[in-house]
């Protein structure tokens, strides 16, 4: 390929992005499913730190979601001035909670309540995040998230489909083929395939150029040492990867990127609840890098994928596992 001439180096094509221009998400709004703790919470805080307003989604853990929202507002008050809007009153914060009915109950319009330290609702411009209860495995739950984001922020630019079942969690949705029943099958496909597809569809209807969608997968789709107990996780996460690839083709003409992130072994509350300290130490010890991943490792990758520098990265399944699986 011909080298660029000296004069062409002044063309914007060759001009490097500034850190602020390439990474800032100022003015954008994001939905992060399953973000009351762990990786999802880290992603929500990362996107907010880059300037985005964020819908923190939860299914059961309202306390965790409210904590993430409070942390985002605290981070915002301490953030550099270039991330703040001109109308922001840095002394004000709020946690807004939208509640959806139980999955088997009819959907009703989301209700909003303010719960801040001084009981004074902040101006709308000062609300950097809201907590929204919704079952991300259902179409109705996805619609609740979309309505809440549009009501609070007036737009949707970023969708991170983080909600999912751990391959290790014994919640009746994984096991060998012999252990799998129809209810487990339906639950896994709803959370990893059906819900993400229809939420992505709804967001795509209102998302403009520069939009970003991130699906999540699992190491079970890549490991050669896969265990029989991963039958549903591998099948459904693999299906999600294919959704991401095909949606990337469909949405590319509109300037919207779609990618999949596959985390490795990440030290999360879910892992701590599943494994003993001895097992966690063992897993860290056999890792090429000598450590487990952190939620921040995954959040940093997602933050980059949502920025301007990643505008030509789409349709990819990106593994973040520290060389554990290559």
TrEMBL record:
Keyword terms, alphabetized: Oxidoreductase
Low complexity composition-biased segments: 82-110
Example GO molecular function: oxidoreductase activity, acting on CH-OH group of donors
Pfam families reported in the protein's UniProt record: adh_short (PF00106), adh_short_C2 (PF13561)
Keyword flag Oxidoreductase: yes
Domain of life of the native organism: Eukaryota
InterPro entries hit by this protein: NAD(P)-bd_dom_sf, SDR_fam
Region feature Disordered, mapped onto this chain: 80-124
Family in the record: Belongs to the short-chain dehydrogenases/reductases (SDR) family.
The protein's name: NAD(P)-binding protein
Species lineage: Eukaryota, Fungi, Dikarya, Basidiomycota, Agaricomycotina
